[in-house]
Design a protein that fits this description.
alpha/beta; 7-stranded mixed beta sheet; about 280 residues; elongated; 12 helices; Rossmann fold; two-stranded antiparallel ribbon; 2 domains
């Protein structure tokens, strides 16, 4: 029988041969999930033998990771904003860079005490909206997604993290999902929309191109299609003092700024990610 240590070394070796960026971390996470042990337990008791079911699960996970399936999808969840979020085939695998969007919204909101109404367009797993609601105890949130599967995952995540009673999930495409009574009602509209060009899609890592839903990634020839639609409708739904916050793709800040100004919105600023790229833009009504 394989021990935790020998199984870990085997996976690490295979992942390293494939030049996976986080080979050691992936092997450790997969081993701990299959062996149903904590990382501390793995470190302190590496010679514990895996049971037959655990070894079978481990080998399946390794095979799937060698096919470039992300570890988060293997395990069914990803940590975002310090919280575990369930994933599904219709949701993006949240990236750490997206936390910059949450930070920018919280900074812009500041110390507002009154009730806030937040709209998340293309909510996916609900990670952005739920992170905001966890930080803003006085806020109500609406998540919109064209995928019913994504909305089911988002609703489960909202309940899991204690904000289900302040969250409303609505199926549909962008603002078409909202009733007329929602107009001028949102203080914050946030979105991490599709922003990859058709050409860029071909160069994405297999972990993204093969496993993230294409509809959540690609936005036309120039990557700006979703921004155009959202910006065009935003003024009808923003409150008088509301603002719009987008995650951006590389090099899109100036183009999205121009789209916002052309629609009568003010550019309130932006925020860089850890790599120094403009990752977020804020547009005011």
């Amino acid at each position: 029988m394989a021990t935790r240590a020998t199984a870990f070394r085997s996976a690490w070796s295979q992942f390293r041969d494939l030049q996976l960026e986080s080979a050691e971390l992936d092997a450790r996470l997969i081993l701990c999930a299959a062996a149903e042990c904590s990382e501390l337990s793995f470190i302190t008791d590496p010679d514990v033998e895996l049971t037959s079911p655990q070894l079978k699960t481990f080998e399946t996970y390794v095979m799937r990771r060698c096919a470039r399936e992300p570890v988060a999808r293997l395990l069914g969840e990803r940590e975002f904003w310090g919280l575990p979020f369930a994933l599904g085939p219709d949701t993006l695998d949240p990236r750490a860079d997206t936390e910059v969007l949450v930070e920018a919204v919280l900074e812009q909101v500041g110390k507002a005490n009154g009730r806030l109404n937040v709209l998340d367009l293309g909510t996916g797993s609900g990670c952005i909206l739920i992170a905001l609601l966890r930080e803003l105890s006085h806020a109500q949130g609406t998540g919109v997604d064209v995928s019913a599967g994504a909305l089911r995952v988002a609703a489960l995540n909202a309940e899991r993290h204690g904000v289900g009673d302040r969250t409303n999930m609505r199926p549909g495409s962008w603002f078409q999902a909202l009733p007329e009574t929602s107009k001028k009602q949102f203080d914050v509209i946030v979105s991490n929309p599709p922003y990859i060009t058709i050409e860029e899609m071909e160069a994405l890592a297999p972990e993204v191109s093969l496993f993230d839903p294409p509809a959540a990634l690609v936005a036309g020839v120039d990557g700006l299609d979703a921004y155009r639609v959202i910006i065009e409708g935003a003024q009808d739904y923003l409150s008088l003092t509301g603002f719009l916050a987008f995650e951006l793709g590389a090099g899109q800040f100036d183009a999205v700024s121009a789209l916002g100004r052309a629609a009568g919105l003010r550019v309130l600023g932006g925020r860089d990610d850890l790599a120094g790229h403009k990752r977020v833009i804020l547009l005011g009504a």
